[in-house]
Amino acid sequence: KAGVTQTPRYLIKTRGQQVTLSCSPISGHRSVSWYQQTPGQGLQFLFEYFSETQRNKGNFPGRFSGRQFSNSRSEMNVSTLELGDSALYLCASSQASGGWNTGELFFGEGSRLTVL
Amino acid sequence: AQSVAQPEDQVNVAEGNPLTVKCTYSVSGNPYLFWYVQYPNRGLQFLLKYITGDNLVKGSYGFEAEFNKSQTSFHLKKPSALVSDSALYFCAVMDKLSFGAGTTVTVRA
Lengths: 116, 109
Fold this sequence. Notes:
heterodimer; A: mainly beta; seven-stranded mixed beta sheet; four-stranded antiparallel beta sheet; globular; B: mainly beta; six-stranded mixed beta sheet
């Protein structure tokens, strides 16, 4: 069974630009959640989607948004990029909403964004 | 809100020695607790979880964790560490899967 796939793996943007990251979950998984990982802040929850609906949202500004398609693939978008947005963005999928009820999350290898 | 804390940024041990990575939690109700490991430039991998039942949970790669309700702890342990166990370890709790800050484990040969 294929794992969680994130694209692109690496990208470089400049301040003010916008970026879209993609995540394809494990087949059959309907929940996709996104996390931002930075050395200073650790792993921060962005949002979670289940069956095309946002179920939970972390404490990030409105510049961070996401969506989920009918095939469970998800995208996240960051507009008006700032230097502080440089991070590893991780996507995780699970069968149930939240995944954290009883089951674990399956993570992709991440998209490393550098903002210059 | 539920949260976890990992009091140690780094843990250094010699290969063959016991490894312990500490985690304490703050939850209302029954906690669902997880441990994940991250190798360099990779995503996180699930190690083990505690939902209910035995306080000693066994997981992948020879790791185990002990749930202690009175001390609100869920420490990760391995009896004999390997150099390949060197990685970043995260404790996590239900409720948006809140993660601890992570503990970098270095096992020296």
